[in-house]
Amino acid sequence: MLTLTPQRYQAIKTNDATQDGQFYYGVKSTGIFCRPSCHSRLPKQAHLVLFATATDALQAGFRPCKRCRPTGNAVSIADWVVEINQIMINQYRTKLDLETLAQLAHGSPFYLHHVYQQQTGQTPMAYLKQVRLAQAKKLLQTTTLPISTIATQCGFQSAAYFSTVFKQVYQQSPRIFRQKNRVVQEAGCYRA
After folding, report:
1. To bridge 145 with a disulfide, which of 94, 97, 129, 149 should be the other Cys (CB 3.0-4.6 Å)?
2. What's the pTM?
């Protein structure tokens, strides 16, 4: 790995194409790596890791950016959908709309939505809702956190919206679900 110098960070900030091939940068929060000239959203400095070659980035477990194609090859649609899913799984707690998701996945919102729906049969936002609800169910079963806190921690805009969505999907309110499905840890064992 290379050191992130002020000059290299400036090259990333300004999308300096003269630095392409000199180094590659990976973004720890997304698992994607790019060329310095990539026009994707500027990542936080703390999330950056630099590599001398694309091979080094691949060996470190990073996936090539769909936008700048740092390996010279196009990323397959199937791989991109896996990448999009991983972003939603890792970022479900945040305010994640289609525009932000597209920026994180290094694509345009329209194309991402089209490809995702074509490949999975559902929209990215429908999948994100499933991820959030699955996490909420887990918290309802295993914690005593207030429902409003669970809603916020799972990325829902409000407790009322969370309750409405939860009831639509599971045909019961979060409170009733918790009462019926509570898992309590006692002396090293669980009981329902």
Report:
1. 149
2. 0.69
